[in-house]
Give the backbone structure.
Amino acid sequence: MPAFSAQHPIAFFCAEFGIQSDLPLYAGGLGVLAGDILKESARQKIPMVAVGLLYRGEGAVQRITSEGQQIEEDLHFDPLSAGLEHVYVDEMPLFIKVHMTELEIWVRCWKKTIGETVTLYLLDTDTDQNQVHERGIAHALYAGTEEELIKQQIVLGIGGIKLLHQLGIHPSIYHVNEGRPSLLHWQLIRRYMDEHGVSYEQASDWACQKTIYTNHTLVEAGNQSYTAELLKVYGKYYADKMGITVERLLEPGVLEGTDRFSITQYALNTSHKATAVSQLHYLFCQQQWPGYDWTAITNGVFLPYWQDQRFSGDLTASSESTTLSEALWQTHKDCKQQLMEYVQRRTGYGYDPQRLVITWSRRMAGYKQVDALFSDVERLAEIVKNSERPVQILVAGKAHVSDVAAKQTIEKIIRYMQNELEGYALFVPNLDMELDQMLAKGSDVWLNTPELGKEACGTSGMKAISNGVLQCTVADGWAAEVDWTGVGWKLDEKNIPESIYSLLEKEIIPLYYQRDDADIPQVWVERMQRSIGLSEKFSAARMMNDYCDKCYTS
């Protein structure tokens, strides 16, 4: 039986939410996934309240100079014009206080209605009640000093619980989506102690029984740790209110034999169930964090947004194979033309959409290994510039503001595009949801090159298969759950560059250009059909059904 109800909804906490392109509330796949969870919950009428931070767009826009350097610019937006509303209580705008060392930080509250049963609440420190230097706590996503990041987590966790309490919302389940919101337990414990007169231990146990935690990566950068001494400064007030030492408060997150506080360890120790985001990730999580109750729920994507609706329903259900092939191919050609025109508007450069279009599009990070495609640029140039079977390469992705190596990688591959690969490769700047959607619909091949074991799931490829875009991927994350024989191509993770070039030369390019009398690549289209057929298995509908069956139950 579901543990949730309209009176006691699921409280979904996350540091980022990808709801729409013009709201700078997301950095990448985690946020877009969180947005898909809300949209699918609304579609299924699952009662859910979501809590995040209202970032103000500082450094949210990626601009590329003529030399290929990434520069971050601010995205100036008006929350009201972007569809957000002030939260009111008794006809007055709601402001809540969050204690921060000796200061009280005032937090303004906004909301975005996702559907009849789903509302997203956003916490905003940019308000006149705060001192000027405190107004910018949530200006930038995942940027700032260790102390500034801790402040964001306190506003999200403590402020989020206070917000729900002020609104009279009593969740049945608290879903901590990635570790950053996990400090919500400080406020949950205080509330249980105050309302029920129980001990810290009892209140902590109650909070734990109401919480599930989802891990989204094995990569260190996604499992942050902070100096325990610094966190003691911020935790002392809350520990004093609970009548315990600050050391006791932080104990669940302090790594043994160190002075570091791990948000992942804290989240695991303050939840009764932990979920991984793919079957392979589940196995790695059990190895890395043994002794916890892990469940595997592979991510999924919200198909009504990511899939061209012509690829659903009657088009793929046709019983006449010839008609189906023609319909699929014509729809795909339309998507390819639309993508080319969109890229041209963004970059000023177009290309022939009849070419085989290969796309690498995701957050720029070392372990995702975009370099693999360009490791032998002379050989790559020879492949793509073949006059009879030309190839167009598209690359998109932002580097984190402090990731110097990723920025250098962008600069290096853009130099290749300006020289050896000129006319056959483009970098499309400022990857956002709109660009992501267009690429997932209008590419031919979706390239995925992570270090094996570091791509916990990788939802971009799910978006692509729903549109018949064929995968060329390392079998990591969700891709390890598919037999790619006759569907896509599996890369050799031990030698990705050679695997890419060899597959392009011997299989992928010849297959794309192998046409019948109607100029349709029949075998290619058959692979497109099989790819589209995988979509439901990797949909947000299936994912939310899994959450309801395995986690959101009494």
Summary: The chain has 18 helices and 22 strands. The first helix runs from residue 29 to 43. Residues 128 and 151 are 18 Å apart (CA to CA).
